[in-house]
Design goal:
The chain is of the alpha/beta class. It is 35% helix and 18% strand. The relative contact order is 0.13. Bound molecules: NADPH dihydro-nicotinamide-adenine-dinucleotide phosphate (NDP) and guanosine-5'-diphosphate-rhamnose. Guanosine-5'-diphosphate-rhamnose binds next to helix 3 and helix 6. Its EC number is 4.2.1.47.
């Protein structure tokens, strides 16, 4: 039975990846942080009483800032595969705590790589590093000739998060080249799901739409509506992570849908799912959206009601304006194919939020 160790197992991707690996017959170990209240909601359905027989899912207390803890967990587990998904992953928040982000997202990656080396597991343990499309920074001049970002596009991070992740990217590549480790970077474009953290823009929108439709929220406040993102579904992307570690040779891969959508259009799409049509007024910092029509008898709101307002407090000091990825290499070498479109993703998120709100 193969053993996998996942950092960030309590997060969106960690939970989907744990499900996938358990289905594939892995013994799955996860690193979770001690918190003052429960933080395992996304994985509680996987957890069994550790006193039962045949328990293939185990959690270890730990933190990417603590080298000794990481060394001990890896020594105990002796994993065949490590997936480093742990990170302070919010781009806007990274401007408020840049040093912490450098420590967790940057040096945390180094700590895992060094632990593998110190423990003599260089030729046994494969490692996946959660790199990101934030590395590109959305610089228009760095796109390829087809107008996409791919594995050869230059990096230009635009946040402390991006800067920390660029260290993670290069140190992973360096350990692969220096020590012959099976170490891969997945350069993943945005991926969402009903399990997405509530402060990322898609989930913030789908939750607000469900709340507004049910008259439980008055108005949604958002930042830059003009940003464009290549949004896929987390379930598709964890499949790609696993495939990266099943090849003969380690390499770096972009996972993306190849389509980009403006935040404003995701907002329109989400309200349309509950039968509400919007009309926009004003521009930039003063932009608002009002109810134009309600086509669903279950969700009737007063016509002309303001349901969205721009709040510049959500703007970032430096923004990534547009991201669109070229997944050709992953499709060709890994046989990876995303199943969701942004529309089916949005529909699933709205349906789940309507059920739980
Ligand atoms: P989440 O924010 O949902 O999850 C992050 C996980 O990291 C949580 O389990 C969190 O624990 C854990 N974590 C945070 N700080 C530490 C720490 N100091 N030590 C150990 N663990 C820690 O992120 P996603 O699941 O969306 O993303 C997974 C990874 O992929 C991240 O590295 C992210 O940066 C990267 N990525 C994500 C993309 C996306 O669109 N989702 C795109 C590209 C890359 P806790 O629950 O206790 O907070
Ligand atoms: P991102 O995701 O920064 O791309 O990072 P996020 O959903 O936070 O922002 C996407 C875009 O929406 C704009 N935006 C808002 N964003 C948030 N969070 N809240 C708002 O109210 C709001 N209004 C507009 C943002 O300015 C931005 O342009 C995600 C994370 O998962 C990273 O960890 C990952 O590396 C990248 O995706 C790829």
């Amino acid at each position: 039975m193969k053993k996998a160790l996942i950092t960030g197992i309590t997060g969106q991707d960690g939970s989907y990846l744990a499900e996938l690996l358990l289905e594939k017959g892995y013994e799955v170990h996860g690193v979770k942080r001690r918190a003052s209240s429960f933080n395992t909601q996304r994985i509680d359905h996987l957890y069994l009483d550790q006193h039962e027989n045949n328990v293939h899912f185990k959690l270890h207390y730990g933190d990417l800032t603590d080298s000794t803890n990481i060394i001990r967990i890896i020594q105990e587990v002796q994993p065949d595969e490590i997936y480093n998904l742990g990170a302070m992953s919010h781009v806007k928040v990274s401007f408020d705590m840049p040093e912490y982000v450098a420590n967790v997202d940057g040096l945390g990656t180094l700590r895992l790589l060094e632990a593998i080396r110190i423990l003599g597991l260089t030729h046994k343990t494969k490692i996946y590093q959660a790199s990101t499309s934030e590395l590109y920074g959305g610089m228009p001049s760095n796109k390829n000739e087809k107008g996409f970002y791919d594995e050869n596009s230059p990096f230009y991070p635009r946040s402390p998060y991006g800067a920390a992740k660029i260290y993670g990217f290069w140190i992973t590549k360096n350990y692969r080249e220096a020590y012959g480790m099976y170490a891969c970077n997945g350069i993943l474009f945005n991926h969402e799901s009903p399990r997405r953290g509530e402060t990322f823009v898609t989930r913030k929108i789908t939750m607000a739409v469900a709340n507004i439709a049910k008259n439980k929220q008055d108005c949604l406040y958002l930042g830059n509506l003009n940003a464009q993102r290549d949004w896929g579904h987390a379930k598709d992307y964890v499949e790609g992570m696993w495939r990266m570690l099943q090849q003969e040779k380690p390499d770096d891969f972009v996972l993306a849908t190849g389509e980009t959508t403006m935040v404003r259009d995701f907002l329109i799409m989400a309200f349309e799912e509950v039968g509400i049509e919007l009309v926009f007024e004003g521009s930039q910092e003063n932009e608002i959206a009002k109810v134009l029509r309600c086509n669903n008898p279950n969700y009737q709101l007063p016509l002309g009601k303001t349901v969205v307002k721009v709040d510049p407090n959500y703007y970032r000091p430096t923004e990534v304006d547009l991201l669109i990825g070229d997944p050709t290499k992953a499709k060709t070498i890994l046989g990876w194919q995303p199943q969701y479109t942004v529309k089916s993703l949005c529909k699933e998120m709205i349906e789940c939020d309507l059920k739980t709100i």
